[in-house]
Design brief:
This protein has a single domain, classed as Immunoglobulin-like, CATH 2.60.40.1190. The protein contains 2 helices and 16 strands. The radius of gyration is 16 Å and the shape is globular.
Length: 234
């Protein structure tokens, strides 16, 4: 299941961030709250989300990292964040989580060019969308979102921005069925174009960080041509 995206001359595959994603056979019934300890036990290291692509307008750079593994039927993602303030007011799934303290995973799971945005605020409110471009994206139905197990070190309550240094973590168990427009039954041995982000559009210090750099004049995460590559081990 290789993905295909047109690349321009200055953004070749060799210049992109690439990451090998290990399979964890022992995690069949893993809950999100167990993911951090499991990935510790398996020796899965963190990757930094540190590209400040629009430094002139948005110079703030919180400390953000993620790690990822997978099982027979799900992705396991663990985010770790340290920032100067924190906010969670989205109130529900498929709400404006990007305006809160938010971490995001975008990926292209098949060869048809459709990509998914999986966005999670600091208390586990989730947004999942799919489509070939930024406009007219289709949101996942609630029954799909309900199957994504979530854990947040901050709990699940909503709150206005707290203007004090905060450290928080979010862990997700994302079933392959979350790719709701596709029939993904396995990722073993595949290559998936993807990027990881941290944002907070409505925080006192808005910011837009990425794992793989984005070479555009204004903030935009919906750019598969600037995704990196995940190599899922067989």
């Amino acid at each position: 299941m290789a993905t295909f995206v047109h690349l321009n001359e200055k953004h070749k595959l060799s210049e992109m961030n690439q990451l090998n994603v290990r399979k964890i056979a022992s995690a069949a019934a893993c809950k999100a709250a167990e993911v951090p300890a499991l990935l510790d036990c398996e020796g899965i290291g963190f990757q930094k989300v540190e590209c400040v692509n629009w430094a002139e307008d948005y110079p703030y750079k919180p400390a953000v990292s993620f790690r990822i593994a997978y099982t027979d039927d799900a992705l396991l993602i663990h985010y770790r964040v340290s920032e100067e303030s924190v906010r969670s007011v989205a109130g529900c799934d498929n709400g404006k989580v990007w305006e809160d303290s938010c971490v995001e995973f975008f990926s292209v799971p098949a060869a048809d060019g459709v990509y998914y945005n999986m966005e999670c605020n600091c208390t586990g409110r989730l947004l999942v969308g799919a489509g070939a471009g930024r406009e007219n994206r289709q949101h996942a139905p609630q029954e799909v979102l309900d199957r994504v197990d979530r854990w947040s070190s901050l709990g699940t309550g909503d709150f206005e921005e707290k203007a004090a240094p905060a450290e928080w973590q979010v862990a997700l168990v994302i079933p392959f069925s979350t790719y709701f427009l596709h029939q993904i039954t396995s990722l073993a041995g595949t290559e998936v174009r993807a990027n990881f982000y941290k944002c907070g559009d409505m925080l006192s210090k808005p910011h837009f960080l990425s794992w793989n750099p984005i070479e555009l004049p204004k903030p935009n995460f919906h750019v598969p041509e600037f995704f990196g590559m995940l190599h899922f081990e067989a």
